[in-house]
Design a protein that fits this description.
Elements: H1 2-16, H2 28-38, H3 42-61, E1 63-64, H4 65-74, H5 76-83, E2 95-108, E3 113-119, E4 128-134, H6 140-144, H7 156-173, E5 187-195, E6 204-212
Parallel strand pairs: 1-2, 4-6
Antiparallel strand pairs: 2-3, 2-5, 3-4, 5-6
């Protein structure tokens, strides 16, 4: 009897074994490689959209500084609909795409958060303060785009990293090559974005493009 039961059990095991699938436990190195592959890479994400989408978007969306500033002062929402991202979260402040050419009347290049004061109408007063980095404040470039959305990201940390990556891309693409000497008196042409200002201060513009002339 026991021999028959033993033989039957053996037959069952033999029958089952061919259908079994042995799953290999991944090594620590394999786990790390898989995690790295699936990790969020804000730099790569911005690199992929910068030239084909971001630059053309600002070139098309940007309004002349005087027009944007006047409309933003009288009707921030209307200005946002025309020059900003109408799909933004309702609690987020407006940012506006802008373009202008003007003369540099002051340059703060000793700080890592370097800026240029630009006079666009020839009255000798700054109409815009342009960030030239390498440290750029805010996330105006990200926030003005209507084709990126917070809900596409896992959490606030990824969203913030994504915003910072735009500033890093602007630095790498063109701001790092902007001279730091003898800028006062030079003409600059800028396309970029700024958040709604308060207190009568010139808008703080983060460039998506900037060129320095004579």
């Amino acid at each position: 009897m026991w021999r028959m039961k033993g033989a039957l059990l053996a037959a069952v095991i033999v029958a089952v074994l061919p259908g079994c699938k042995i799953i290999k436990t991944p090594t620590a190195e394999e786990k790390a490689a898989a995690a790295a592959k699936s990790a969020f890479d804000p730099k790569a994400k911005v690199d992929a959209i910068w030239q084909p989408q971001v630059v053309p978007y600002f070139e098309k969306r940007a309004g002349e500084l005087k027009d944007v500033a006047q409309l933003a002062a009288s009707s921030p929402d209307q200005a946002g609909e025309k020059y900003g991202n109408p799909r933004k979260q309702s609690s987020s402040p407006w940012t506006y795409a802008v373009k202008f050419t003007g003369k540099v009347i002051a340059a703060d290049t000793d700080s890592r958060a370097a800026t240029l004061d630009v006079d666009t109408d020839g009255d000798g007063k700054a109409d815009a303060k342009v960030q030239i980095g390498p440290a750029l404040r805010g996330t105006a470039l990200r926030d003005t785009l209507d084709f990126v959305n917070f809900n596409e990201f896992k959490n606030q940390i990824e969203w913030a990293q994504f915003g910072k990556a735009f500033n890093e891309k602007a630095n790498a693409a063109f701001l790092a090559s902007v001279p730091r000497n003898d800028l006062v008196g030079k003409t600059v042409t800028v396309i970029g974005a700024f958040p709604l200002q308060s207190g009568g201060q010139p808008p703080l513009v983060t460039p998506s493009e900037l060129t320095v002339g004579s």
